[in-house]
């Protein structure tokens, strides 16, 4: 069972509400003797941190992570994991006092207000409570640990579409990703997006996006058919991110229109073993990694918090209109890039341990 | 952990290889006192059964299911579930003797041959062994039970795209789905597909497809954030089906191009409570069902078994060409319709029980 | 969640009722390439089989096991595990037609009649249905596979007390265990028990017993604190066996009366590493195996089916007397020996895989 | 999988080392709308707190618990659970600076020093690190929440044996439990124990104990056969407590010596339904609660930290002698009473939710 836990052998349990005292997670099952300090985690959190450009929410959270347990110095004095649970905590510091009475009363369309209240009979309305994307900070923190579990693993991500504007894949340049506020691998697209998003932001509107995440150095053989397929768990991981409405692997939905001939990833022998001539499979066949890069994409819906009033109802069953003021990302897809990377890393770390259990190594 | 088990409280464990003596599953956690006999399961299996048209594999499997445990007559003499595990078995009868030596030696592109062998050091090559879509018969059988767990639940599915040819959603007619060999809700599209697929089949080629599954009567409140979101588990369920490369909920990937204004599902009061004016959310907000129909789509890649030779390698590291003769579906997406329905039903049944655990009712 | 599944990485799911068509289990997570055929399992089942002496039930079940999936011949033609789920089935052949109306109506003291009916609103009264010890045949079958998972592992068991009569531990002789119908390691005690149990049997009475199980060759390091301690999972495994009322590890309850000085297992260096001078710990410290033999004992209550009438109530709330005729073990503890061995082997195999996941090797 | 998590639907994940910055836990799956503040938890922690008499360790920990998430005020302003994870944290304040170099080097007999180091290749030696009984504070805190989940549930515990000295059950008086430093229900025994333990303490020795825990108000029907039996999960829960070597339910090991006639708990009709004439079953039949009080006992070995030097080895394979100075409980069994109660409450809460899932209510 997993309400707030993700993973089976590399297990991440998160807790906390947007405007509570803190948010945190417990990472259980991490192998011992992996060097780990806050300095290994903080840079990944900094990439996701809000308020770094005008295109993300102006909430100012330093997001300073503390390791509360699970590490100790080894014989050389290096701080390493001990095999016991790693507790991470981030204090919430920028909870502006604000009047939440309207949100507490009316259900914002596209938000979880109505469903949380229906399910639980109560909800913490402050900043979205538990359903806030603030929770994803802990995913990024846990993902930083996951990255260290699998030797040779590299996980990267990029924004490939903003609203109706997709990148040109021919111009893909990983080094460009850090040079713009969008994690965009296509510098020309980034310029266009800046202009487009500026308009969206000024209009108090929002837009959706598509993110691509790629894992390289994934050992062949990860994934446990039939119901723990690697792609299945990636789909689960990415769909669990706030606002995600679709996930695809490799060629994805485009594969539906292909012929068997075009879709087949043919094989030849390379210097290091099997060499695939294409990667429509996204690095996974039969739920098991092939050794090729694992490629996944996910679609994020537009931020539901917009200035334009929308028709809604209150928890008392009255009709109302609501608009959402305050600090919001015009495109939550931007900050979903590091979150998607983290979830992919967590899935791969989990399967790395699972594979080791059944097959050894 | 779940290698071959799906679900947490409504749990389905499947076993069996394509050409073994039988395939089967164990359904654990089913509530007691639900009327259940083979007659409740067989019709759903018959919908998925191969050999019903020239567009599906000509393998002739009667797929007769037997309930081996977990039922007993109640006071009225009706056979009902007892709360103990329900074991279902289907004997394999059409395992043609065949020479599997080439498949055993060469890795078919797009198949799980290479990855199973890499992972396990061995594989059963007969008919794809465990990675065969034959396993999905047990999903359909378990799904038939899941449908009975949630009062008022209806789960339906349809093929909405074959190769590059999508239906016209304006012509959607659920009653048409049973009138063509494609589970197609658009009679005109069905005619076009028949012609198209005939060409594909005669060419020994194959094509992909997109399936839409819809659950009506889903109670509001199902889904357990953060890591057991209803949409997350649907994504996991559908991506676990053989050959699936993408999953989306509600507006799905199209949501990426929408504005916040267009994407918002506005609410008014209806006779029976909240009435949504649209369903871009696909019936799920914040991972929890809204009470609207739950809508998901998934993309199936083209069948990897094709007549045209493809370049590959052998397990001994030699380069080779391979073509796949024999009985195959030119479009595995067709028979994926009942499988997708079943998986959706299983997810909903599981969450129905999970909801009942935490919130009661 | 686990209603009918035991283990996490080496997972055993059992199904079936005493008088249904068959009983079976699915073993999931077994590593690949382990030689396995029915001949590896049948001898262990034969040790548990009823009707082998006058001290066990006269029900005649051949208990012939069939492997339905999960094995295939390797390059040498040896049948080995493939890493996919192993389905085992035993047909029930000796379900005597019998009138179950009294049992169906009245709750037998000490049996699960009342609790199953209270919980589920229904139960299969034939031979105890799901609560019958017949289910333990599948534990023994799965245990036979578990024994092959951990290299060098030996698991043995013995009956050490019958009713008030304990063995003399000074006379412990493992080779004697196979020479009497009680799995008794003390030949003199076995003679005494034969006489004692003959009286019990003729009186239509029953008696309890204590079983000791010992695992040798358990690698040091198995067990995952805090909530997957090796001793914790052994306690869970043994307490799950029908009629068990107590479990202890190493010195067990006797440790309560010891001083810290006497209880400490001191250590010296031996030829192969650390050598313990005693084993009050039963081979486990802090929930993790030390490399010493793992020693556990469990107490089985007397068979609840006795000829002497006992006061009870019916499901309709009437008072009644009931006595249980038919074929029963006067001491179910005897046949619990191979079951206890099997459960211990399953726990160790599971932890062997879990250890491999977190720490490698 | 559960390294540091206990429970399935009421899930407790603990983290922290004895001398780290803090210890904590996350309680997931708790139903919403249960009134909960620190004041509901603190009194239970205070009962377990060290330093309250000369018979427990003199470490001075205020053990002040903070609720970090999962609660919010309801319509009446009462703070209640919201259905989201409840994070609890206790800061460690009394970590005396001390030289741990000898413990870091030598394995203390009876402690987890050797096994942690063997398993993980590293351990935090400060105060026992993760294997310290300090972790049990979080069990007590989580247990305080569990007690509120099941309406009408009462869980109590008592020390029934210290070293070789058992209570006289005829003198059992629950009200006496709070009147002595031993949770002893027999005032005369308490006096004797005070004298006995004084001698043990002054000698720098230690002794074992037996604890009995009793749950009243457990609804009939809890427990999920075959592998989630209520007694099985109680055995697992109690055996997971530090230093526990044995667990028994109802008549326990004594049942082995009983006849079927004497062991049977006969039934008559009472005013409120079935009335049992005895409770050898300990309130559980076939793994399912009967509605009678659930009764379990567990044996705790003597504290391994003693002044008398014991023979041991170092991690470098040298032979050595070691004695353990410092602050220790002469009988850890005393403070195990509230811990055992808490674990019993957690198991029952978990099964209450599980039952509700499968059967409703």
From TrEMBL, chains A, B, C, D:
Known EC number: 4.2.3.5
GO cellular component: cytosol
Catalyzed reaction equations: 5-O-(1-carboxyvinyl)-3-phosphoshikimate = chorismate + phosphate
Sorted UniProt keywords: Amino-acid biosynthesis, Aromatic amino acid biosynthesis, FAD, Flavoprotein, FMN, Lyase, NADP
Names of the cofactor(s): FMNH2
MF GO annotations: chorismate synthase activity; FMN binding
Enzyme class at the top of the EC tree: lyase
Biological or metabolic pathway of the protein: Metabolic intermediate biosynthesis; chorismate biosynthesis; chorismate from D-erythrose 4-phosphate and phosphoenolpyruvate: step 7/7
Entry keyword NADP: yes
Keyword Flavoprotein: yes
Residues holding NADP(+): 48, 54
Cofactor descriptive note: Reduced FMN (FMNH(2)).
Binding site for FMN: 130-132, 242-243, 286, 301-305, 327
Assembly and binders: Homotetramer.
Family the UniProt entry places it in: Belongs to the chorismate synthase family.
Protein's recorded name: Chorismate synthase
Provenance organism: Microbaculum marinum
Source taxonomy: Bacteria, Pseudomonadati, Pseudomonadota, Alphaproteobacteria, Hyphomicrobiales
């Amino acid at each position: 069972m997993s309400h707030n836990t993700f993973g089976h052998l590399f297990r991440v349990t998160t807790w906390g509400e947007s405007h509570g005292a803190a948010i945190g997670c417990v990472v259980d099952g991490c192998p011992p003797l992996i060097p780990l300090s806050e300095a290994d985690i903080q840079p990944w959190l900094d990439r996701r941190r809000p308020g770094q450009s005008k295109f993300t929410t102006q909430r100012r959270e330093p997001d300073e992570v503390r390791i509360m347990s699970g590490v100790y110095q080894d014989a050389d004095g290096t701080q390493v994991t001990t095999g016991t649970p790693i507790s991470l905590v981030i204090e919430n510091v920028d909870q502006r006092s604000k009047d939440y009475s309207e949100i507490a009363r009316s259900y914002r369309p596209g938000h979880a207000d109505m469903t949380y209240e229906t399910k639980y009979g109560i909800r913490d309305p402050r900043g979205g409570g538990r359903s806030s994307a603030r929770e994803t900070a802990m995913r990024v923190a846990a993902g930083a640990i996951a990255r260290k579990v699998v030797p040779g693993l590299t996980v990267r991500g990029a924004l490939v579409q903003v609203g109706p504007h997709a990148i040109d894949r021919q111009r893909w340049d990983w080094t460009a990703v850090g040079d713009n506020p969008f994690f965009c691998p296509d510098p020309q697209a980034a310029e266009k997006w800046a202009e487009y998003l500026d308009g969206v932001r000024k209009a108090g509107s929002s837009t959706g996006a598509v993110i691509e995440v790629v894992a390289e150095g994934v050992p062949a053989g990860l994934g446990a058919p039939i119901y723990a397929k690697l792609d299945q768990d990636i789909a689960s991981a990415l769909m669990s991110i706030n606002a995600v409405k679709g996930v695809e692997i490799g060629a994805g939905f485009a594969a539906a229109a292909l012929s068997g001939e075009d879709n087949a990833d043919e094989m030849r022998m390379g210097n290091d073993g099997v060499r695939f001539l294409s990667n429509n499979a996204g690095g996974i066949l039969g739920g098991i990694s092939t050794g090729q890069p694992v490629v996944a994409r996910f679609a994020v819906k537009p931020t539901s918090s917009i200035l334009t009033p929308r028709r809604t109802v209150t928890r008392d069953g009255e009709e109302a209109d609501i608009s959402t003021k305050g600090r919001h990302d015009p495109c939550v897809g931007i900050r979903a890039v590091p979150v998607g990377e983290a979830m992919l890393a967590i899935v791969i770390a989990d399967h790395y341990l699972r594979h080791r259990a059944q097959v050894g190594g």
